[in-house]
Design goal:
The complex is a heterodimer of chains A (397) and B (100). Chain A has helices at residues 6-10, 22-25, 27-38, 169-173, 175-180, 202-209, 215-218, 255-264, 336-367, 382-395; strands at 19-20, 43-47, 56-62, 67-73, 79-83, 100-104, 109-111, 118-120, 125-127, 147-153, 156-160, 190-198, 227-237, 240-247, 289-296, 300-305, 308-318, 321-330, 374-375. Chain A is an alpha+beta fold. A 7-stranded antiparallel sheet of chain A has the order 2-11-10-5-4-3-6, with no helix packed on it. A 7-stranded antiparallel sheet of chain A has the order 12-18-17-16-15-14-13, covered by helices on one side. Helix content of chain B is 0%, strand content 44%. Chain B has strands at residues 2-6, 16-19, 25-31, 34-39, 53-55, 58-60, 67-69, 75-77, 86-87, 89-92, 95-98. The chains are: A alpha+beta (397), B mainly beta (100).
């Protein structure tokens, strides 16, 4: 057995050959992904604590499925999901100001600003101005908001755009849910978000974050000399995947990063005692465990570590355009020193993400030359290989 | 005189909806320390004004963002055009009363 090929040995079914580039650059392949993946599977569209109060709502644009979803908390405290379209003449009910639009209504209603049709958080059409001028065939009861399947896991909101989903959310998550069960996502609520549109395929973005091989080269500036043993505990769970990323946590930080680490320990590359990780994460209690890197198919990466969790989401806009959202969460600071230390850790993380995203548009542009038709993956890039296999299975299903 | 509520129940940030016998809703406001009462139902749509927001002495309807002057009931912003009925308020022994 060659230890350098340990993941191939564990997962021979994934093969070891080169991976075709065409799915990253072909518009018709993307059309099939939209139909077979983004309009079919459960998608993570937010967290319940983003809309904490009754009547709070968020509208999220889902370009890959040609719709926007209204997520609204009703007076009964239940979060429901609807397409953002008015039954009158098809305008958006909530006027969107970007990829995500937030609002609140004490009355738990949304009003279309075109002609003033009012809908409740339960989806019912509550008020139509000059209703008497509509004809007998118009039935208010049948013209509520169009509902979307919604379900929840660990405070994450999922929607499914299929008329009848192939699987329940629990079935879809499978072992992935059990792997992370118990991690205190909600307690680590102090967060920052970065988002931007990138000129690359969503899988180029996924792949850039789904391995640690790049750390030594790309992050030589932000996290110098931290790469050690790479991936450990790779686990493939249906369409989802996870692994531990191990780094040299003892590397000398810059003086200011050292001070920040000693106050808050909010940086990924510092040694921290394990108190909150579920038993399935870092099961061998490796000293060099830095964080768990997981992919919740298709487009959500969830990472957890002691005192920190963060996500990347890649929302396709076109075959070569992607909305990237990166969110980083820590426990709310209690002192000004902690606040400063966390801001420092977050800034460092932001720099690392900028380094990560820097390659994506270059990769896409170069891939589109078609001068190369395949990419060559090494053993520690198994999550990318698994992704390619899973996407291929869905698209050709 | 009809008793609506006690003074203690009122809050500057919250509008209290009181339902009278027969279902007629009254909105009770505490505005800069003064108490006011109006009909709760918007004169334009079917909205409960108690679920609206107070802005600059006006009650803004949650349905279409029309508004009324809380003190006088005058319609201040379209689509509201018909004035809102207001009621003189009297506080007797810590309780808010109106004359119908």
């Amino acid at each position: 057995m060659n230890d350098a090929h340990r993941w191939l040995n564990e997962h021979p079914e994934l093969g070891s050959g080169p991976i075709p580039i065409e799915p990253y650059i072909a518009p018709d392949w993307y059309e099939r992904e939209r139909e077979k993946i983004f309009r079919k599977v459960w998608l993570c569209v937010g967290r319940v604590d983003e809309i904490p109060k009754k009547g709070d709502y968020k509208v999220k644009r889902l370009a890959a499925a040609d719709t926007s979803v209204i997520l609204m908390r009703g007076k009964d405290d239940v979060v429901r999901a609807y397409h953002n379209i008015c039954a009158h003449r098809g305008n958006t009910v909530v006027t969107e100001t970007g990829p995500e639009t937030f609002g609140r209504s004490k009355a738990a209603i949304v009003t279309c600003r075109f002609h003033g049709w009012v809908y409740g958080a339960d989806g019912a059409l509550k008020h139509v101005p000059s209703e008497e001028r509509f004809y007998e065939c118009f039935d208010k009861q049948k013209n509520g908001l169009s509902p979307i399947h919604v379900d929840f896991w660990e405070g994450f909101i999922f929607i499914n755009l299929a008329e009848t989903p192939d699987a329940s959310l629990t079935e879809f998550l499978g072992d992935y849910a059990a792997h992370f069960a118990g991690f205190p996502f909600a307690e680590l609520s102090y967060q920052f978000t970065y988002y931007t549109e990138l000129e690359c395929n969503w899988k180029v973005a996924h792949d850039a974050f789904a391995e640690a091989y790049h750390v030594d080269t790309i992050h030589a500036g932000s996290f110098p000399n931290t790469f050690s043993t790479g991936l450990q505990n790779v686990k493939l769970m249906g369409p989802h995947r996870t692994c531990a990323v191990c780094l040299t946590l003892g590397a000398t930080p810059t003086p200011v990063a050292g001070i920040a680490n000693s106050i808050a320990g909010a940086s990924l590359v510092t040694q921290r005692a394990e108190t909150m990780l579920p038993p399935s994460i870092n099961p061998d209690k490796r000293e060099d465990f830095a964080f768990e890197l997981s992919v919740l198919f298709p487009n959500t990466l969830i990472h957890v570590s002691e005192g920190i969790w963060f996500t990347h989401q890649f929302w396709p806009i076109a075959h070569n355009r992607t909305l990237w959202e990166g969110r980083y969460y820590v426990r709310p600071p209690k002192t000004n020193a902690e606040r400063w230390a966390m801001e420092h850790a977050m800034t460092l993380q932001r720099n690392a993400w900028l380094e990560d995203t820097a390659t994506m548009e270059d990769t896409q542009r170069a891939m589109q030359s078609r001068a190369k038709t395949v990419q060559n993956l090494q053993d520690d890039e198994i999550l990318i290989r698994h992704s390619a296999v899973v996407v291929d299975e869905y698209v050709n299903a | 005189m009809i008793r609506l509520c006690s003074v203690e129940e009122l809050d500057e940030d919250e509008i209290l909806r009181v339902e009278l016998d027969g279902g007629h809703g009254i909105a009770v406001y505490l505005l800069d320390g003064e108490i006011f009462a109006t009909d709760d139902l918007c004169t334009h749509g079917e909205a409960s004004l108690a679920e609206g927001e107070i802005e600059d002495g006006k009650i803004v309807c949650p349905f279409h963002l029309g508004s009324f002057d809380i003190r006088t009931g005058a319609a201040c912003a379209a689509p509201c055009s018909i004035a809102l009925k207001t009621y003189p308020v009297e506080v007797i022994g810590g309780d808010v009363h109106i004359a119908m």
